[in-house]
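User: quick one
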Amino acid sequence: MIRIGILGYGNLGHGVECAVKQNEDMELAAVFTRRDPQSVHILTEHVPVCPVADAAAYKDKIDVLIICGGSATDLPVQTPEYVKYFNVVDSFDTHANIPQHFENVDKQAKASGKIGMISVGWDPGMFSLNRVYANAILPDGKDYTFWGKGVSQGHSDAIRRINGVADARQYTIPLPAALEAVRNGEALELSTREKHTRECFVVAKEGADLSRIEKEIKEMPNYFADYDTTVHFISQEELDANHSGIPHGGFVIRSGRSGWEGENRHIIEYSLKLDSNPEFTASVLAAYARAAYRMNAEGMSGCKTVLDVAPVYLCRQSGEELRSHML
Amino acid sequence: MIRIGILGYGNLGHGVECAVKQNEDMELAAVFTRRDPQSVHILTEHVPVCPVADAAAYKDKIDVLIICGGSATDLPVQTPEYVKYFNVVDSFDTHANIPQHFENVDKQAKASGKIGMISVGWDPGMFSLNRVYANAILPDGKDYTFWGKGVSQGHSDAIRRINGVADARQYTIPLPAALEAVRNGEALELSTREKHTRECFVVAKEGADLSRIEKEIKEMPNYFADYDTTVHFISQEELDANHSGIPHGGFVIRSGRSGWEGENRHIIEYSLKLDSNPEFTASVLAAYARAAYRMNAEGMSGCKTVLDVAPVYLCRQSGEELRSHML
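Assistant: Done. Structure below.
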């Protein structure tokens, strides 16, 4: 059994707990929290919830610590810190800062002889993998990534900060016409507005000026100004009833050419349709926790990303079983 | 530069030649053929076409030999033989015999210190990879593979063997309704007939009994009897004009569940739409030739499949570049 620790018990940590339950070769060893442990109620029986300060003391009781903090301020500190004691996996997703994070984690992981697996999830993660595979196969081609239909937490938060808004949920939606054109192999330069639309469900406070709120949303730079945005005002009850899930997904498509003169066209497409963004991300984290455990058992150490992991390390089954049944 | 040799210059060997041209870090060193070398005209200038008996003499002039023979009788002999001298890559695709082929190649590859990369292509190959990734992430789920729309060489050949048939081309077509149901997350047990249809374009010899030919096709066991099959009789000119390509493709879909009680559903889908089946397969072979070269340079040897190759080995770019731009 691979003994898993969870650091941080929000949506993602809860998802990891569920994923561990689904994987027969894993067991949950402990959950660490910055909150009062008494206030954190996990689902797995007979597993301790501990203050984060106690984590290092679990050094010999946990094989892989899955760090479920945020990318802005938590992970840049936590991942290099805890890789001193454990193999760790994180979902660091600030694309631009990955090289720096890699370097920080690599240094500590090499010193401790552990594996620090970073930026695991679906983007970065499975989407990155698919970009790399598709680029390796079709060097002469073009990549397209579409996100959605799904909830963007950042955009929902941005709406909530507007004066007069009580609650909000924002969906990012890929434009079907753009998807179709890319799938038909047309080599396109698509603008932001041509790839995605944004749909907002907003609960206004009593007496708020709806047209002012709508205008503020639609003109918000970076978040909405470059998109065709639709705003619906609904009641809190309707928001809770119809928009409480956290679905997401998207498409990675590469359109490329082969042949002596590039005469043949090929389309490689990978897509995800997810009922729960955090639970799916957590499921990816669990698979890469298995890989971290196995790779470390073979003597590997240092910082790794999904690009460094041979697929055979991810599945519970042996290489022999996979070759017989899945190859 | 990675020096590539090609053994066997049919559709696949030709595709590899084109792929090598597209990859800036590769050069074609030699082509080996069982035909009279004088009769084989390749596209790359200043590259020798040699009798297959000379291959071993190129031991120090070739980094990776891509073996483009057939799975029935060529590869079971050629791959274990040439891995004595070279890193090799093949596209062995008889799924049931992969474990035996693996064992044969592994033994010779370990003795020679080379890498023998087998069963590379799209199925087995990219489709296998996607089955493994999706199973690792969603252990509670179900796999579906659909092939097509594409030309099945084996089924086209089977029609050509019927008395009175001059030429034929058979397309395997996935049923849109089945694809849609799977994408909607319905857990289905689909029969053969519910997944694919078969469409045949047949050129009959003069005076042949068309209704007898159609009946023989539709009732042919294994090949057609379990499918809804459509037969169109056309002229040789029409076949040559409209059905001379070798397109193919397909879909690998996993529908799975997450959550404490499996309450959330996720769909992972990978699909290919290929103008040229052999050229795409060749493009995959070229990428894995790069991986074989690099892995061997790091001291690895033995038989490998796509499941054993970390994605970072496949792209021309360094790990650092990939982390900065594609992760």
